[in-house]
Design a protein that fits this description.
- This protein is an alpha+beta fold.
- 23% of the residues lie in helices and 25% in strands.
- The longest helix has 24 residues.
- The protein starts with 8 loop residues before the first helix and ends with a helix.
- InterPro entries: DUF1214 (IPR010621).
- This is DUF1214 domain-containing protein.
Length: 411
Amino acid sequence: MAYGDGPADAPLREAWNHFCDQLKQAGDSVFKDANPAAPLMRADAFRFLTQNLGQAFDLALETKDPAYPQLHPFCTPTRKLGGDIADFTYRQAWIEGRHAYRITGTRGTARWLNVTVQGPRPEFIPGTDWPSLHEPFGDVPECNVFGHQLETDANGRFELYVGGEPRTHNWLPTTPGTRKLFVREAFDAWSETPTTMTIERIGMDRPRPMPTAEQMIDAMEWADSFLTGAMTDWPEHSWRYSGGICDPLLTNRFPPDKVADTAADATRGRMAAHMVWELNPDEALIVEMDDHEGFWIFGMGGVFVGSMDFLYRSVSYTPARTRVDDDGVVRFVMAHDDPGVHNWLDTQGFSNGNLTYRNLMSSERAAFRTRLVQRSAVVDELPSDTAIVGPAERSRQLLDRYHAIKRRYGI
């Protein structure tokens, strides 16, 4: 049998060729103005593309049927996207409002968990004329349940129902526009364990049908839109429309004052602020925040706003892992090499990137201060009580990180 013998041969080949052409076009975004020309930065941009090429058809085809849902690990130590932050895990499942689902699992000890039902994806961000972020983002939260609201048995086991008839507890309603379940879990101490869960459609009584030629063509179209969107929207979309960032040309500074003050913030259970940074080889950046109650996370990202190498490097901090100075100020030193301070943010050799702040379950305002200093003068710029670490202690910190991250992802 040869090409042309099958009635779907021509449209399948046409769709595949179009996908390959779009993939080449997506690769051209590696060389956009936002991404410095250094070989390390160009290589990382292609890595961003290839990591998401690796999940494109998981999202577009393998998990796409809402009658046969699967929880897909959206971001991992080897796959970054969407402004993910190191101390979160992200899972999603495609669902529909006409079905009912049961999620079973065991609650871990992670400090924060949010299971959200996402509704339709509008063309524009609600209330604005700004375009929505590329697929699978841009949909609007409809309802959610936090980890502390889940009812579990003595061993932490639970059942959570999504859609169907109303229930008195552990139930999330759906609407005709429901399209996705989004699960985010955030960790503080390295000892915390993840929540295990799986999803099934209630009434599923036969195998999933094999994908048709038409579904394969649709998947190719979705995948090329996804990859092209990822390469073109990041980081410019967040600069223009997020509301959580200063002018990207004004590097090395956060917005002066941020507060979780919208309904979307409340449903997501978090507030975010964002900084674009740029460091020369002989520079360091001191980032300060007055210490406050609550669960916050700082995480480093690359130019395309994907998280940095959180499996091996010191690129994120939470309250349990941060030293606060005696004056009540949280201080981090962002530097290309280890400055010997406890709260070191590793640039992993990048000249440019992003630093994101998350404040979970709180609307408390956070004020930030930054100072660009010479790398050789870092210690002189810090209080005398700043926590210092030597090589042995740093190695232990990195091993603690490595083992904890592997436990979170079961790798």
